[in-house]
Amino acid sequence: MGAPPPVRARHLGELRAEQPLFAPTSAHPLELLPTRDRLLRTLLGHRRVVLGRSDHDQVWGWLGTVVVVLVAAAVRLWQLGRPHTLVFDETYYVKDAYTLWNLGFEAQWPPEPNPAFEAGQVDTYLDQAAYVVHPQVGKWLIALGIQLGGGAESSTAWRLASAVAGIVAVFLLIRIARRLFASTAMGLVAGLLLAVDGEAIVHSRTALLDQFLMLFVLIAFGCLLMDREWARRRLAERVAAIVDAGVAGTGRTSLLYGPRLGFRWWRLAAGVSLGLACGVKWSGVYFLAVFGILTVAWDMAARRSAGVRRWWEDSLLADGVPAFLQMVPTAVVVYVASWWSWFATPGAYMRQWAAQNPGQGVTWLPEALRSFTHYHAEMWRFHTTLDSDHAYKASPIGWIVQWRPTSFYWQSDDPGVGDCPVTATSRCAAAITSLGNPLLWWLAALAIVAVVVLGVTRRDWRAVAVLSGTVAGWLPWFQYLDRTVFTFYSIVFTPWVVLTLVYVGVIALEHTERRPRRHRTVILVIGLVVAAICAVSAAFYPLWTAEQVSFDYWRNVVRLPSWV
């Protein structure tokens, strides 16, 4: 049978990051370490193994996180109720959420209900169910925010859940990036960039569904990253036990197939989160597919790096099949369960369709599920045939550079009219434009190309990870070029846009860490880029938050004709 195959120390770039980014330290030679420690460094990399071991790193990890999250909270919560107007698609989702909480289904409203609703007359809804084309999870969260924020009379309450989701997303991205790049500093950079980005700020201050979709897929990504680390630690322990037993005994240990790793709770949690994502919008299914492939690919790479000779077959059977069973059925069950109020409420839209249409639909299903599947078929027909024109319709090609952002709100007044001061020297403008920070997104568009090249040349798993969310959140929309779609959908993959840009900085730091002068230059450049992005955000912030400014200011900031 022979000796076990040698451990591949640098498969898929697993040890591309063996030194701390800002403070290089020497590592023990792999051959001098115990088998388990050697495998851990092979599977996780030295940087990840030592991350957080020092008190300094732990203190700055949490103190920096608190500071960045407070920045995110400040720019999201400041005058959150401005404007006291149903903005863009809030006209659907706020009223849907309110009736969903009160009736168990989304109800119809009388003609032109918004002025009365905004004036505090929030109970003018009818008792007939409305036809809605998105699932209920996001609307339940908006409704919860309304209840906790003071009621439907408050525009702050309408948006409270979105703001909390945006703040939580910044916290999660810090911790995810810190673990992904094995760097506390670059984790904080990633969180800060998300904290000040325009897409993230606007969606945190409006009650739309896409913010919650972004949060749930980000949670799923974080869970799978935790699962990757847990699985590799478990694999290191069990392979080490096999190897050491072979050395201590007969010296003949076979690693034709690797050990089983047990139940993967983090992977199950990812399935739950992805089910909730699909319960916000159906586009969550693309993340389920991409993340499912990603997590199995990570397992394949781990088994090969650990010396398993038939790693591909072993991983498909031991990891791939369980991954599918843990994630896909879980997501389906969670999704169906998220419609619980529809099942429980006889007056919900199409709830009685099966009873009213015997012998139609999927006849072998119980009546409730037959109505459910027919309703979903109608929703699918709507989504796949929507082609009505819209002033802010935008091809997915331009999303990555924010070419045609969506205007959520616009108000212009002459001096002395409304809140525009009599002393104003020009007209006043108040706008909410769902426009990502232009500098961040333009640099990230270039970074995507660089990351693809780096991922191929360096065989670095992190490159695939940072691109995964953009692949799942952006590329599928290219199959709907004739459909009415908008740039604001890009909020769903905004965290991965940030990660992609930060990854380029991480590579530059790693590449120069043994050349102190160049290393300091890279740190300076990263600092200048972050400062410039923050300065751009400060300039655009009034146009993301409906703050009244002079028309001249608005015109000087909105430089591209396609932004208007």
Automatic annotation (TrEMBL):
Give a single Pfam family match.
PMT_4TMC
Where does this protein chiefly localize?
membrane
Location(s) in or outside the cell: Cell membrane; Endomembrane system
Record-listed E.C. numbers: 2.4.1.-
Q: Which GO terms describe its molecular function?
A: dolichyl-phosphate-mannose-protein mannosyltransferase activity
UniProt keyword Membrane present: yes
Q: Answer whether the UniProt record assigns the keyword Transmembrane helix to this protein.
A: yes
Q: Which UniProt keywords apply?
A: Cell membrane, Glycosyltransferase, Membrane, Transferase, Transmembrane, Transmembrane helix
Which regions span the lipid bilayer? 59-78, 157-174, 181-202, 208-227, 323-343, 439-456, 486-509, 521-544
Q: Which GO terms describe its cellular component?
A: endomembrane system; plasma membrane
Q: Where is the ArnT-like N-terminal domain?
A: 67-227, 263-297
**Annotated InterPro entries:** ArnT-like_N, PMT-like, PMT_4TMC
Q: Which residues form the Protein O-mannosyl-transferase C-terminal four TM domain?
A: 369-498
Q: How does it sit in the membrane?
A: Multi-pass membrane protein
**Pathway entry:** Protein modification; protein glycosylation
Family in the record:
Belongs to the glycosyltransferase 39 family.
Q: Give the function comment from the record.
A: Protein O-mannosyltransferase that catalyzes the transfer of a single mannose residue from a polyprenol phospho-mannosyl lipidic donor to the hydroxyl group of selected serine and threonine residues in acceptor proteins.
Concerning PANTHER family, the annotation shows: DOLICHYL-PHOSPHATE-MANNOSE--PROTEIN MANNOSYLTRANSFERASE, PROTEIN O-MANNOSYL-TRANSFERASE 2
Protein name as it appears in the record: Polyprenol-phosphate-mannose--protein mannosyltransferase
Query: Which organism is this protein's natural source?
Result: Xylanimonas oleitrophica
